[in-house]
Amino acid sequence: MADDWREDLNLREDMERYVRQGYKREEALDFLKRDSPMYAWSIRSLDRRLRHFEIYYNNPEVSVEEVKEAVKKELEGPGRLLGYRAMHKKVRQEYNLHVTRDAVYNVMYDLDLEGLEARGGIGAKKKRKKGNFSSKGPNFVHSLDGHDKMMGYQNSTFPLAVYGCIDTASRKILWLRIWTTNSNPKLVGRWYLEHLVETRIISRMIRLDKGTETGVMATMHAYSRRNHSDIDDPIDTILYGPSTSNQEHLALLKDHGHYDPFDEIDRMLLAFILIPLLQKQLDIFKDTIWNTHRIRAQKDTFLPDGIPNNIYSFPEEYDMEESGLPLTEAELHEAAIQSGVLDTDDDFLDEVFRRECERIIPHPDELEPKDCSKAFIYLKRNFVSPA
């Protein structure tokens, strides 16, 4: 029984993932003790098992050319906006290249010195944001907000809007969604409900901008919190206040006459191409970059330094406590019915329009970011508008 771990492929995959994500050994142990309690764990046993599976934090056999190829591919797409720390995480996790941060920095220095300097990657000190913030622990306060800069003035440019949710204690991004709008209150409420159904946990409070899109979500939260004994008035669980490159492709399409932002067909064709592609990139950013990056100590907050995933999963290691409250299936069902959010369409295209798009490009989620402009032009050229 003691040696069963040697044949445990799931254990090997878990250990490879934690090393790839850059967890310190002590942090990896937290997850391994929780997920593989059938084995005895210590730093020594972890080291022994890493050696047995030939898992190394840094692999000297990875060539500079392999790193260059990965970085070059990222610089051709959304990765050109990444600093060297974020690029290092993406190279390790998306390309499985276990190399040092310095190795990635040196390659970026050779390939994109100007971009590296622009992103503050060379000797630039970033000013700390003023503020003083604390939280009791994960799921105490969730902050939700949208980003609609690509929509343009009066939503007249590109049909691309983002909405997301972050846990304020761990700074873990819980979900991100991109759609043709983020101002539909029932749509935003539906995304919030989907998160509650998935986790069966509701935060004690949510922090929102005071906009029309947040009304249904705020009502759902207060309604779902009405039976908890830690509050007198569920309305008090709603906090209002401000939250603290693909655009180049889009601008080119518009400037060269390929895309008309006032033509509804053009807008939906663009959404068909870009929304699955950008959702995929948002998920990669959430899971492989942000939630596994190491937050350094900040003197202006009372929040812990560490990796968001680790802080969220093991708050007791950071002198915090899990603060979320459970929701029953009956409570979730009632919130869904009372809010009416399930009546909202779950697709931004109608069925006939989508079928015609998929006839031309069956799998838009498999497109590379650098090919999105050509894909849109090809789609528009071959699209037959439904009668």
From TrEMBL:
This is Clr5 domain-containing protein. It comes from Stylophora pistillata (Smooth cauliflower coral). The lineage of its organism: Eukaryota, Metazoa, Cnidaria, Anthozoa, Hexacorallia.
